[in-house]
Amino acid sequence: MSVRALIADDEPLARERVRTFLAAFPEIEVVRECGDGVEASAAIRELRPELVFLDVQMPGLDGFAVLEAVEAEAAPAVIFVTAHEAYAVRAFDVHAADYLLKPFTRARFVRAVERVLARGADARAAARQVAELLGHLRARVPDERIAVRTGEAVEFLRTAEIDWVEAEGNYVRLHASGASHLLREPLHRLEARLDPRRFVRVHRSAIVNLDRVRRLEPWFHGEFEVVLEDGTRLRSSRTYSGRLRDLIR
């Protein structure tokens, strides 16, 4: 049985890599390649492929937004392909077919495709899984775990274990239990994934877990020094001090 596939990635070399590895699967026909999210969304609705290799970060629409625009009955099986491990938990938790972290090997790619083909007869099950993904995305449920790379592996860190987060350029560093983890994701994007009842921005470059705050020391002009349980001191800025004043009240 032929399986119609679509490749969506803004990097031409990445699309070529997927296409090259797919040569080992003559039963899979690539019906289109797309270089941005808007094109991918339109192509999925038009062509209704059974399988999509989908990058997460693309111009126009990101991979998750692409799926949000797809009707449930047209939902394909999805293999996420991305260089950003930050999205791994989000994909696994909602039962995506698989998640390939760049740079992936041929063997890892083959395993992912074989997993999809093994359940290919139940196309409705794949559609239900992606429909579940769409519902999850629309609900915007805060993440309970964050995927961080440790050497060649990916470790799952519970968000409740995070003490505080600091921006490092376009990345963030997570501080948890005396260790730190660099995450290739900007601070504002990570903030959107965290529970606002537990995490609060105290500075344009810092977020704290309120459960880790030991005390607040008044500073100048309505600012505070935020002292954490481990002794870490962070200066709040006036812009972000309102939530801290609410805690005092």
Write up what this structure looks like.
This protein is of the alpha/beta class and 249 residues long. It has eight helices and 15 strands. The strands form four sheets. It has a five-stranded parallel sheet, sandwiched between helices. A five-stranded antiparallel sheet has the order 10-9-8-12-11, with helices on one face. Strands 13-14-15 form a three-stranded antiparallel sheet, with no helix packed on it.
What is the topology?
Elements: E1 3-8, H1 12-21, E2 28-34, H2 37-47, E3 51-54, H3 63-68, E4 77-82, H4 88-93, E5 98-101, H5 106-118, H6 123-139, E6 145-150, E7 153-158, E8 164-168, E9 171-176, E10 179-183, H7 187-193, E11 199-203, E12 206-209, E13 213-218, E14 224-228, E15 233-235, H8 242-248
- Record the strand order, biggest sheet: 2-1-3-4-5
Topology pattern, helix = H, strand = E: EHEHEHEHEHHEEEEEHEEEEEH
Structural class determined from secondary elements: alpha/beta
Percentage of residues in DSSP E strands = 25-35%
Largest sheet: 5 strands, parallel
List the uncertain runs: none
Nearest-integer average pLDDT: 82
> Could you tell me how far the N terminus lies from the C terminus, measured between alpha carbons in angstroms?
65 Å
Q: Number of DSSP helices?
A: 8
